[in-house]
Design goal:
Distance between the termini: 145 Å
Strand content: 25-35%
Largest sheet: 9 strands, mixed
Number of helices: 9
Length: 401
């Protein structure tokens, strides 16, 4: 009988014929059937959890773009910038029934130079051309300049000049500059420079601005005069001769206004006319959206306009003082002129006339499909450059007289 080689085999029983030795890996602890039942119950829960994650991710991919689109397209959430100096325009419209014309960017540049709280940046002045002329001058007391300059920055189109308002020559300097700038109205030049209060320690500043806009039509037009009546805010009728313009123009009927765009002017200018639905004389609220006519098509219109050859001289000091945008020792005046200049067929050759008639018919032509729009009560007009957000002129036409 042989001895087993190792102690382990020496003291172990030999397997019976119906038994087999388990391999080494089968010697691990066995898992009870109840444990397998518990782990099996977790499988549907894990499946539901994975399904929920997939659904949430899918909803994120679907809802996020949809909500973003709704947020940007909703008019209530858009930030619509206000028109420049519209609060000043409203204040002047309420305080005076006369025709008012303002050049907002010219006013903003002047206020920025004197350190007003209303504007810290220069306005975007249009380049002077045959159609637009903008100029401003700030007359400062010489003793103030010697002590401490009040100008906080320099703006294109607005200059500074030192004067002595206590002297006769210095007091008349503002009126002389207005005459040099083409202002011939004697009323506008009277007592502008007389701002001395009698106190030698009081420093005075006078701001004078001049804006002249000439709207040259680039299509042949022979202005026709059609008799009619102008409706005043009180309801009285005034006789007036309307100028007739006929052609294809963009028009939009908005909740408060009917807006018309005239874009056939020289030097890339365009004129917006806003006719209120009511004849009370109130201008209402105006935003940049009222000038967005990109989604509106052209319509054949017959427009009846009162004579547009306007001159407005406005003293802005009291209104700016009331709004808290100007110091009491500063006088601000603006002289503005607007002229609509027609182009007759004698000023162009036959080919130019044919090209113009293809887009805008002459006032003498008639069309059964034309829509007549009569500007017979107070309306708002705005002049700006094409594709520019700056306003060259903003005004209210109150009366043809």
């Amino acid at each position: 009988m042989s001895v087993p080689p190792t102690p382990q085999t020496r003291y172990s029983l030999p397997p019976t014929p119906h038994q087999t030795r388990k391999p080494g890996y089968r010697c691990l602890p066995e898992i009870h059937a109840s444990r397998l039942a518990v782990s099996g119950s977790l499988r549907p829960k894990l499946g539901l959890l994975l399904l929920l994650v997939v659904v949430l991710v899918s909803l994120c991919f679907i809802l996020v773009p949809l909500l973003s689109k709704i947020s940007f397209s909703s008019p209530k959430t858009r930030n619509i910038p206000p028109l420049p100096l519209f609060s000043l325009f409203e204040h002047l419209s309420v305080s005076s029934p006369s025709t008012i014309l303002l050049s907002p960017d010219l006013i903003l540049s002047s206020l920025a130079m004197v350190g007003s709280s209303l504007s810290s940046n220069c306005g975007e002045l249009a380049r002077n051309s045959s159609s637009v002329r903008l100029a401003g001058r700030i007359f400062m007391e010489r003793k103030r300049k010697a002590r401490q300059s009040r100008l906080s920055r320099n703006c294109p189109g607005v200059e500074e000049e030192q004067v002595e308002f206590r002297t006769k020559q210095g007091s008349a300097r503002v009126g002389d500059w207005l005459q040099e700038s083409g202002v011939t109205d004697t009323l506008a030049n009277t007592d502008i420079g007389h701002t001395d209060t009698g106190d030698s320690d009081t420093d005075n500043t006078v701001i004078a601005t001049v804006a002249t806009i000439k709207l040259h039509l680039t299509v042949p037009s022979a202005p026709q005069s059609t008799p009619g009546h102008w409706v005043s805010p009180t309801g009285s009728l005034l006789p007036v001769k309307f100028t007739v313009l006929t052609g294809q123009y963009k028009v939009a009927s908005l909740p408060t206004y009917t807006t018309v765009l005239l874009d056939t002017f020289r030097d890339n200018l365009e004129l917006y006319l806003l006719l209120p639905h009511t004849k009370s004389g109130q201008i209402g609220h105006i935003t940049w959206d009222d000038f967005n006519l990109a989604s509106f098509g052209t319509t054949h219109l017959e427009i009846l306009l009162p004579p547009i050859s306007l001159v407005s001289h406005v003293t802005l000091s009291s209104s700016l003082h009331s709004l808290g945008h100007l110091s009491p020792d500063t006088t601000f005046t603006q002289h503005t002129a607007l002229h609509l200049i027609h182009m007759t067929s004698s000023h162009t050759n036959t080919s130019q006339a044919a090209a113009g008639e293809s887009h805008h018919q002459s006032p003498g032509s008639s069309s059964s499909s034309s829509t007549r729009l009569v500007f017979d009560h107070s309306f708002v007009l705005v002049v700006k450059e094409v594709d520019q957000d700056s306003v060259i002129l903003m005004g209210r036409y109150s009366s043809p007289s």
